[in-house]
Model the fold of this input.
Amino acid sequence: MLFDGVPRDYRRFDHDVRANPGNPWLAWGRYLAHGLAEARGWSRGVRLDVDRALIVLLFPHTEGDIIRYSEIIAPLRALDSSIERTVEVLETMGVLVDDRRPSYEDWLEKRLDGLAAGIRRETERWNRTLRDGGPCTRPRDQSTVWAYLNAVRSALLDWSTRYDHLREVTCDDVLAHVKTLHGHERHQTVVALRSLFGWAKKDGIVFRNPTARIKVGTVEYSALQPLLPQQVNLSVEAVRSPAARLALALAASHAARAGAIRALQLDDVDLGNRRLTIAGRTRPMDDLTHQMLLAWLDYRRRRWPNTANPHLLINQMTALKTGPVSGWWIKHELHGQDATLERLRIDRQLEEALVHGPDPLHLAEVFDLDEKTAIRYADSARALLEQAAEVGPVGAPRKFENLQGRSRSLLD
Done:
């Protein structure tokens, strides 16, 4: 190699002229691809696509060469080969350099636009510290990084019109901005501002923390309301795939979170004893869940007979890997519906409180809830029962009997 950093053009590859099956790097890549194919259950078509891609990328490879991610996207798309599977082989070989610009950089640049130079500089440092961690600071979840900057952005834009640095912001400025907010938005903004100025004070960027004496307070939640039967019926009619039907049954019958449904593995299912382990808790399997589960397992076995993915729910992408499905995929069939997986989960827990009485201890034991959450469900159920007593005797909702009947009709 005469010049480092000069991009290769793999699209000029001529298979009949330039293929070199004797290249040891190509032989190693093929060996690793064969092992991954056996471990992941790749189909014959995927194996051939990856082999063709490896021939194109590794035929000229020598010791010390690197392959950049940006250079392989166009040629592999032209070959209609699997980029993700080929990348997995190249990463195992240690020859791939991922030179793509992280989406976080574009998002951060957009969210910091419009801030005064001094405020922008320190806000960027704070947000990167949240994301990457620092001395005596653990990295936060990506959703927290996004939420904190989104929460403080309006305040920072306002202060940027008259200040050039965070040290100019006073307690009165913070209180004036917080007074314009209410409920969860106010709570989230105060928490994020305390994080920003607490970090700035610790790093010596500001002389005094203007949020030090501002109390976060508690969020006053409104009473939870049960779903209407027609809302549940619309969601039942909206789901068509066996995986979505099973996810709906798990949320409606077992109050399973979407994350817990994605994490379920085949070993968590005991069909013989009709037991199901969700988020570490084993519970009996009802008829609705049993039927949805049998339908999904039959579809899974016919659709991906060779997959090695241990997760219960898989799709076309994850069948070739060992990871869970995405959060978007598990929810997309219920997009736009009132009875989403999260609402169905909440409604199931609220129904338990209505049927068995508003007892926080019972709810905490059945659904493994923390103390505050169990009390909130119990208070909401108590308010609903008192309201029902004022207008007349009203039975507890049994929407899911209708759900079970409709789900059976979908199976037919």
Summary: Residues 371-391 form the longest helix (21 residues). The radius of gyration is 28 Å.
